[in-house]
Specification:
The complex is a heterodimer of chains A (168) and B (340). Chain A has 168 residues and is mainly alpha-helical. In chain A, 71% of the residues lie in helices and 0% in strands. The chains are: A mainly alpha (168), B mainly alpha (340).
C-alpha cells in the first residue's frame, strides 16, 4: 500500500509540475516520470503487459518525438509576463470553459467510482495473460480497435495536409 | 528469510558485478583484437600482456577532473549518464542465462538463473531500449554545445528508426516461440532435428537473425553505425563535454548494452544455454561461449568496416531493413498459422 501511495504521489506531483515548468524540456521529462509512475501502478494491478506497453508507447516512442521537436525548435524559455495584460488562458472566457471541462471530468470520475464494477472480460486476474488481452481486443472490442486506428490515420493525414505548403 | 530469497539477492549482486567486469574485459579484448587486426601489439605493459590495462584506465578516469561547460544545464548534465548506465543494467535483469539450478543441492527449490522472471520479458527489453535514448538525447542537449546537440539528435533519429526493425525481428521470433517469456523461448529450442541440427531459431529465422543483429548494432551505436560519435564530423558526439567518471558511465553503458544485445540474441536465436556435450546444469558455459562469439563478431565488424554516410544509414534503415522485417514477420505469421 505504501508503494501505491509513492507511485500515485509521483504521478500526480509530476503531472502538476509539467504545467508549472518554464522550460519545455523539463515539462517533457516530468511527463515521462508521470508515465513511469502510472506504469508502476499497472504492475501493482497485476497487469505487466499494460505496464510495459505504457512505457514502450508513451514514455518510449511518443515522448521521444516530443523531446525531439522541442530540441529541434530549441524553444526559448517562456518569457515572464511582465506587462499588465492578463495571460490569454487566464481571461474569463477560457477560464470558464476550462472550469466546465474540469467539472465534466470530475463528475465522470465520480460516476465511474460509484458504479465501480469489474468488467467481466478481465475478471480473475486474466490481465496478466497477453493472449487474453489480444483475444478480447480482436473479438469483443474489434470495432473500437479498428475505429481507433482509423482515427489515428485521420489525424496523420490531417497533420500532413495542414503542414503542406502550396508551392507558389 | 528463506535460502531461496538469499540466493536470489546473491544472484542479483552477482549479475551486477559480472556486468561491470564484462565491460572491463570487453575494453581489453576490444583493444587487443583491434591491435591484432591492424598488426599492432595493443596494450602490453600493465600486467600479463596488458591484462590489467582496464584497471589502470579506471583509476586514471577516477582521478580526472570532472568538468562541466558553463552554459550547461547542471541537473540534466548530471542526470544523462545516470539514465544511460541505469538502462544498460536494467535491461539485463530479465535475461535468463542458464537452466534452473539447486547450486549442487544447496537449495531445496531450484533457482532460476535470471534476476527477474517476467512473463513479458521481451517487451521489457524493448521498453528499456526505448528509454535509453533519453540518456543520449539529454546528454546532447544539456551540454549546450553544437557537437553534442548534433550527436544527440542524430542518435535519437537513428535509434528511433532502427527500433522498428528491431521490434519486428523480435516479434517474428515470438510468433515461433509462442511466448513473451525469454526462458520459455529458450526451452522451446532444446533438442535437435534428426539428431543432427540443433533446434535453434536461427535456422528457422535466418533473416530475422540478420535483421536483429544489424538493428542491434545500430541501436548500440557501434561501428559501422556509430554516427552519434563520428569523430571527423562531431568530435565525440553526445559525450564531447563529458569527462572523468560521467564519461566512464557512457562508456560502461555502451559495452553493457553490447553484452545485453548479444545475450538476448543468444536466448532468442542461438538456443540460449542448450548445446551438445555438456549437461543441462553446465549450460551456462554454452551461454557464455555464444555471447562471447557474438561480441567478437561485434568487434570484428567495428575494425573491418568503414562508417557509412548518414543518409545511407537512414535509407538502409527505412527502405531496406524495415520492409524486409515486415515481410519476414508476415511470412512467419502465415507459416505459423498454416502449420498449427
Amino acid at each position: 500500500m505504501i508503494i501505491f501511495y509513492v507511485f500515485a504521489a509521483v504521478a500526480v506531483g509530476a503531472s502538476l509540475l509539467v504545467i508549472a515548468q518554464r522550460n519545455p524540456i523539463y515539462s517533457v521529462l516530468l511527463l515521462i516520470a508521470s508515465f513511469g509512475a502510472l506504469s508502476g501502478l499497472y504492475v501493482m494491478l497485476d497487469a505487466p503487459f499494460v505496464a510495459v506497453i505504457q512505457i514502450v508507447v508513451y514514455a518510449g516512442a511518443i515522448m521521444v518525438l516530443f523531446l525531439f521537436v522541442v530540441m529541434l525548435l530549441n524553444a526559448p524559455q517562456e518569457e515572464t509576463e511582465a506587462d499588465t495584460r492578463r495571460h490569454l488562458l487566464l481571461r474569463s472566457g477560457p477560464l470558464r470553459f476550462g472550469a466546465f471541462l474540469a467539472l465534466v471530468l470530475a463528475s465522470e470520475l465520480v460516476w465511474a467510482l460509484m458504479g465501480g464494477r469489474e468488467s467481466g472480460a478481465f475478471a480473475g486476474g486474466s490481465t496478466t495473460s497477453v493472449a487474453a488481452i489480444g483475444r478480447s481486443l480482436f473479438t469483443d472490442y474489434a470495432f473500437a480497435f479498428e475505429v481507433t486506428s482509423v482515427l489515428i490515420l485521420v489525424a496523420l493525414v490531417g497533420a500532413v495536409v495542414l503542414a503542406h505548403r502550396e508551392k507558389a | 528469510m528463506s535460502p531461496l530469497f538469499i540466493a536470489q539477492i546473491v544472484l542479483t549482486l552477482f549479475v551486477f558485478v559480472m556486468l561491470l567486469n564484462s565491460a572491463a574485459v570487453m575494453v581489453y579484448v576490444e583493444r587487443k583484437v583491434a591491435a591484432r587486426l591492424q598488426q599492432r601489439l595493443g596494450p602490453y605493459l600493465v600486467g600479463y600482456r596488458g591484462a590489467l590495462q582496464p584497471l589502470a584506465d579506471i583509476v586514471k578516469l577516477m582521478f580526472k577532473e570532472e568538468l562541466r561547460p558553463k552554459a550547461a544545464d547542471a541537473f540534466l548534465f548530471a542526470l544523462a549518464p545516470i539514465i544511460s548506465a541505469t538502462c544498460a543494467f536494467a535491461a539485463f535483469a530479465v535475461v535468463p542465462f542458464g537452466a534452473d539450478t539447486t547450486l549442487f543441492g544447496l537449495l531445496d527449490t531450484p533457482l532460476r538463473l535470471q534476476v527477474a522472471d517476467v512473463n513479458v520479458a521481451v517487451l521489457v527489453i524493448f521498453a528499456i531500449a526505448s528509454m535509453s535514448v533519453y540518456g543520449i538525447v539529454l546528454a546532447g542537449w544539456s551540454s549546450n554545445s553544437k557537437y553534442s546537440l548534433l550527436g544527440g539528435l542524430r542518435s535519437s533519429a537513428q535509434m528511433i528508426s532502427y527500433e522498428l526493425s528491431y521490434g519486428l525481428a523480435l516479434a517474428s521470433v515470438l510468433l515461433i516461440g509462442n511466448s513473451l517469456s525469454l526462458s520459455d523461448i529458450v526451452n522451446r529450442q532444446a533438442g535437435t532435428w534428426l539428431s543432427l541440427l540443433p533446434r535453434w531459431f536461427i535456422f528457422v529465422q535466418p533473416l530475422g537473425f540478420v535483421i536483429y543483429m544489424l538493428a542491434g548494432i545500430a541501436e548500440t551505436n557501434r561501428a559501422p553505425f556509430d554516427f552519434p560519435e563520428a569523430e571527423q564530423e562531431l568530435v565525440a558526439g553526445y559525450h564531447t563535454e563529458y569527462s572523468s567518471m560521467s564519461f566512464a558511465m557512457f562508456f560502461l553503458a555502451e559495452y553493457i548494452n553490447m553484452v545485453t544485445v548479444s545475450a538476448v540474441a543468444t536466448d532468442l536465436f542461438l538456443g540460449g544455454w542448450h548445446g551438445p556435450f555438456l549437461p543441462e546444469s553446465l549450460g551456462w558455459i554454452w551461454f557464455l561461449v555464444k555471447v562471447a562469439a557474438i561480441l567478437f563478431f561485434y568487434i570484428w565488424m567495428r575494425w573491418t568496416l568503414p562508417r557509412y554516410r548518414y543518409d545511407q544509414l537512414m535509407t538502409f534503415g527505412w527502405k531496406i531493413l524495415l520492409p524486409l522485417s515486415v515481410v519476414n514477420l508476415l511470412a512467419t505469421a502465415a507459416a505459423v498459422v498454416y502449420w498449427r
